[in-house]
Input
Amino acid sequence: MLKTALLSVALIALAPGAVLSDPIGQKGVAPYVTHFVFRPVTSIDIPGLGTATALEAVGTTQNMKGEKMLDKMSAHCAAVNIASGDKKYIDGACVLVDSDGDKIFSTFDTRDIDKTQANFDCGTHIITGGTGKYEGISGKEPFNCKNMPALGGAGGLTAMDIEHNTAWEINKTGRSMSEPAKEQPANKEPAGK
Output
């Protein structure tokens, strides 16, 4: 009994991350929705020519399968909404933050549509990196946009649910698993040795 207790204490002391953390895995697919409120920050509006509106969006995420990955995270995005002639798109970037303060960063483009996923026809996020447990993360997130009822009050606030179908992987070497490894230069000894 004493031996088991000492072994348990040693394991917790030597490997707290392995024993106490809730692992998210190294690769997966996670369907989730972000419940957003959008706020226009500034705008350029030239009647008959076009508009450009800087947007800020904040919200929270919900994993649609009840899994830990991409669930209960805060979301904060900056974007630009362009409408000029037949050009209408939104580009931007987002950060998701979990309860531990670890972050996932992504960019998005509403012109980048994944035609293999017909239900996700609003654009695509590209996960470019993360911190903490998400260090080395990369991935692709096709998404769809569901307008919500208009918000009351002034300020031009709008609400939208953005549903994502995320394929992600974490590779601590800092490159996507789909990228080939770069050749490392050979170590050269200093001259005169």
User: Anything to note?
Assistant: The radius of gyration is 22 Å. Confidence is low (pLDDT under 50) at residues 1-21, 180-190.
